[in-house]
Write the structure tokens for this entry.
Amino acid sequence: MIYLAPVQGITDRIYRNLFPLYFKGVDIAIAPFISSVKKMKPENNLLREFYPDKNTGIPTIPQIMSSNPDDFTRLANALYDIGCGTVNWNLGCPFRMVVKKGRGAGMLCYPDRIESFLEKTMPAIKPKISIKLRIGLTYPAEVLELIPIFNRFELEELIIHPRTGEQMYEGKVDLDIFEQCLNLSKHRVVYNGDIDSLEKLEMLTKRFASVDRWMIGRGLIGNPFLAEKIKFNTEKPYNEKIKIIRAFHDQLFTEYSKILSGPSHITNKMKEIWTYMGSFFENGDKIRKRINKTHHRDNYVDIVNKIFHEAQIVQT
Ligand SMILES: Cc1cc2nc3c(=O)[nH]c(=O)nc-3n(C[C@H](O)[C@H](O)[C@H](O)COP(=O)(O)O)c2cc1C
């Protein structure tokens, strides 16, 4: 099974709804995190994002960022009431402000806090719970203390990105620690980190024969045909792929234009997408630079037309 990773600013509801209209092979997505709040009104905007009639694309599990069991439970149960059977707990976000508050990866070095969070939450929560985590905040081995704690609870699965919080998104993934987690965990484990080709996945499959769920973020946003290639080992001609990416891009642009007002909001949104989507093109860096220079809609549309036109010519 292939999971689309949560990437804040990119894999939102619009992206997840449009993606399967153009690309095959992704089975499920975890949504970018939402934070639990102290007081929650029933008509909360956060919840609205997860109404089933608004999530018609990749089946999606919401993700909650919280270190407070009561707030987490309230939000998780509200999500259950609108139809979400599982929620995911974020124990991986490495951003300074999050870590400073002892949330996300900032909680990984406090096994006692994680244990008491789960002790309070598990009996009170209606949906199933899965956890997405890194292997530590500072040291990779921090996770080895956590797995025996997780083993005591009925969790849906663990999604492990084998980097520390301090590594952010760079440096090597620690496959040895991942292997130790796999051996220690009684729960199903999903692998996440740096999968960007069929060959990379094959290497991982060989080493971790018991894993059959793979989460992909940047690799899939950069090459949305990757899941199709992995699952069916088929590949469309380059020109056809460019046409499909163009159609996907245009529909994203149309949908975001409906909700983003102000001349630079839409271009800023599209620039974020190009940060990753640029990798699809041979001259990705140059393309990103050209896109980043645009500041309003018409100028953006003009440049994008040129980029896609040139991409077609390169191959013909
Ligand atoms: C810009 C950005 C935003 C992210 N937002 C989230 C998030 O909201 N929740 C989460 O669990 N992980 C988040 N991640 C981490 C990814 O889900 C994933 O774990 C990480 O990128 C490694 O996988 P990859 O190498 O396949 O991209 C984010 C990553 C990036 C680069």
Observations:
- The radius of gyration is 20 Å.
- Strands lie at 2-4, 28-35, 60-65, 86-91, 128-136, 158-164, 189-192, 214-216.
- The chain has two domains: 2-232, 238-315.
